[in-house]
Amino acid sequence: MRRRLGVLPSALVLLAATAAALAPGLFSPADPLRGDLTERLLPPEAAHLFGTDELGRDVLARVVHGSAPSLQAAVIAVGIAVLAGSAIGLVAGTARGRLDDLVMRAVEVLLAVPSFLLILVVVAVLGPGTREVAFAVGVSAAAVFSRVVRAEVIRVRGSGYVEAAAVCGTGRATVLLTHVLPNAAGPVAALATLELGNAVLTVAAVSFLGFGAPPPAPEWGSLIAAGRPFLASAWWLTTVPGLVIVAVVLAVNHLGNVLRTRSETG
Amino acid sequence: MTPLLAVRGLTVRYGRGGPAVDRADLTVEAGQIVAVVGESGSGKSTLAHALAGLLPDTARVTGGSVTFGGERVDGLRERAWRRLRGRRIAFVPQDPGTALNPLMTVRAQLAEALRLTGTPRPGQDALEDALGRVGIPDPAAVLGRYPHQLSGGFRQRVLLGMALAGRPALLIADEPTSALDTTVQKTVLDLIQRVAARDGTSILLITHDLGVAADRADRVAVMTEGRVVEEGPAERVLGSPEAAYTRLLLDSVPRPSAGPAPTAGEPLLAVRDLRKVYPDGTVAVEGASFTLDRAGTLGLVGASGSGKSTVARVITGLVEPTGGSVLLDGAPVRAGRVQFVAQNPYASLDPLMSVGRIIAEPLRALRAGTRAGRRERVRRLLEDVGLPPEVAWRRPSALSGGQRQRVAIARALAPSPDLIVLDEPVSALDTVTQAQILTLLRRLQGKHGMAYLLISHDLAVVAAAAGRLAVMRDGRIVEYGPTAEVLAAPEAPFTRELLAAIPGGRVRSA
Question: What is the CATH number of domain A2-23+45-265?
Fold first, then answer.
């Protein structure tokens, strides 16, 4: 019951972020790309809730319009990680033996390389862009998923109902799809929400370094990077997008934790 | 003289629910063995925990009194309980597999128990003496071991040694042997009885097994739904029971089937020189041979580790044999002809599937019938195993253990198999449920005419259901013949040992 605390605010934050990504016009009618040079570097006020940047663009508009690429990249990254990781884990957990050893050692190598380095290498090969960043983050997170899925598959495969299905004459593929995958899915779903928060953060970090969408397109990470020269005179340029990232990551992590505790206590 | 333990009108509730123990009365005199008998959920374990001051935080005593040695002990604080527990009242928990700390040696855990009884620095002699008293032959060697290096029976003895180290006045044993094989159960119970007689310790024995109670107790209390429905001297309660529930329990005790020896029918299953060696070199089965007649029942009995489960797994095709042959009607087993009911009904049903889908699984696997046809078949199967049709939409978690086992049986019946392998089908169930399932199996065999291979560690269960009997030990079949003949004149020493270990001779002969 104590875990319920904070579920509602977290859900509201996520709802707002998702709505901003889907319908940015609802939150800010201003154009995120076009600014008025006479209104440069204005602090937060009624007309510009989050102030304006060095080109007179509305920061609220840029943050709101930046949520779509930022969140999209995180969701795609987690999607890639779940799909690729589950496939690898399923194969390794089902085949066991030689193939299992081979695949899992490769996964361990992947885990041993610092993930940020790995992401930068992949982005360096593919070139900058939101989709490329998403792919890189997804690849680096897949290793964790493959380990969890493999462990779950091995657990479920040893269970009484999988044995019973084998005696019934159910084929191996059917057993995997109808018994093993659904019963292995719980921890994967919990891990996916936790990983989503991580992905938001990583995507922002990569775009902060300048590998995300090219300017002037707004993205949370690149907004912070762009505001950095004005840290002393215009604090809102870095603080506002920073706080938004913190709020979203905290909300996702909290919901992920609640989900995980639920799946553990059954 | 005041009794050692007097419980008057004790009521215990969990949260806001109804009482788990409802106005229970119980008396234990010094030196007596009192058995509390009941099903799981009858409140007997809650009663035991309440008497040892071990109720969880969610439970509250809402009425009644407990007097121990002339003093009220209900409502004692934890600190006062700790002074009492271990010295005057000892407790042996149900599962010896989890009650010992796996990371501590026996020596460390026993020393801790002795320290609690007031020996600040127990020496080697004191430790060895504590183990020697519970019949451990080489105490010095056992002291240095970790729990996982000991067998279940030895772990239970170590727990007993810890409990009895302080020479308590009362020992509360909560199902001390239900996780053990029948032969090990006998040695542990013998030991408890002997130690009690020697030290004058009173024993409160919590058990679901009426036979155990009948063999060991001076007085028996029968519990159901939180209430003590009958209490009295063992002979009186078991000889002329007054409560309807006691009679039901007595009727549920498995008795050897009295029917004539089965006439040799048409052979269905032929197992020849079966051998199974696991990759790690363990020889599980060594040259087992037997035959099973069409519509007959063969009982396969043995202790855990005797290889009987491996035989079941080979016949059902889960494990490839190393050598020998398994032939059904003279040919290798075809898909769907042999079905399987496993021991644990909590593990053998997929928790995410509806009961209807679970039962229809073999039909889907064999691609038998249309969707509507399968649904109709599931409805008839549920009727066959005595479950209402709406169960088809529920998930296994909504069912009791007995109901789950019925679902597992319905699934095994679905493809109309020639043979169903039943691996310990009732050992996870209460006595009454056990009797109901055995009756159901008999009725289904009469109706559908399939053969059973019934595997169990409990000779009583097998003798009640099987016409023929095979006794396994260390991977070999040491005795094989019609049940009545084996029971009347067992040839192998191990069979005689198994027979002697069946608790409740008094109850069964009644």
Answer: 1.10.3720.10
